[in-house]
Amino acid sequence: MLSSLLWFLLVLCIVVFVHELGHYLIARWNGAKVEVFSIGFGRELVGVTDRAGTRWRLSVIPLGGYVRFPNPPDQADGDADVPEVPDESLQAHAPVRRIAILAAGPGANFLFAVMVFFGLILTFGKTGVSNTVEQVLPDSAAESAGILAGDRILSIDGQTVTRAQEIRDAVSPYPGTALTFVIDRDGRVMELDVTPVAVDWTDPLGTVHRVGRVGVALARPEREPATMLEAARDAVGETWYLTSSVLRAFGEILTGRRSTDELGGPVMIAQVSGDFAEQGLLPLLGFIAFLSVNLGIINLFPIPMLDGGQIVVAVAELARGRRLSQRFMYWFQMTGLVTVGGLMLFVIANDLSRPSVLNFVGGLFQ
Predict the structure, then answer these.
(1) Which residue out of 20, 166, 238, 317 is catalytically annotated?
(2) Nearest to 102 by CA among 306, 242, 294
């Protein structure tokens, strides 16, 4: 349990540091002064002040981080225009510059994921194509549809697939729904209608999901050496695949096609961090990249208090030509505080409803 908590702190601190470093670097490049660069919230545990006057510190509650800018100059009129000559505060900068500073945090998370995948692919090689059927399970949907061992699955319902994860993602959400498989059999391309069978699948955290399965085992791909250009291309592709998968999952949750039970919070991340650390360096680095992409996406949501919400404010000020009123900003920020707090309570409640997470938490006190 202690090992999982230590890995959780390490993983979270890495992705948070990357996020806040993105804000910091672009802020300094635009001439904004950064008073505090903090990993964690609350009371400072240890810190140091650099020559630029920024206090770099580690705080007592390691569940996030922030960069703090000087307070904007007082305005007699809440609707006053943004000053033409920018000073060291963030709010005094032109909206375009603030958008760049705010977007730099999520952007750094995406760039970090690309760098992680680039390093992994360059070191361990690229994964070969894994869409060849090695075995068709008896009495399965694939057998009923006529899929044979040796077939190559080219696409599913118009979505090109080249690896096992893409095939799972194309099939799992559609139990009982007929899907069009385009396969290559000895050089002959054909279409087959396959209806995934609904099965209950329990994930490593103990949550039960109703998913679709077609009943095929795929040939295990071998890793191939990659050039720097191939590694860069595949790293961008892997990050884009993760980003699109996460966005699609959020969209399906919002439309009711997926359960909100899949959302997890810090307790779940702590357990999963330990699980991936036990599997080795390669899975752990992949999980860190996945978590970095998630952090980047979530912070771009147009929710007050998050980067996306502040970007919406900056865009509104850019269109309006002047600063939004102090009254509006007060209620906007209060709404964001309540929303973020509510979401945090919801995901923690989700964490504590999972049997495996309850066992994990219970083990901390034994």
Answers:
(1) 20
(2) 306
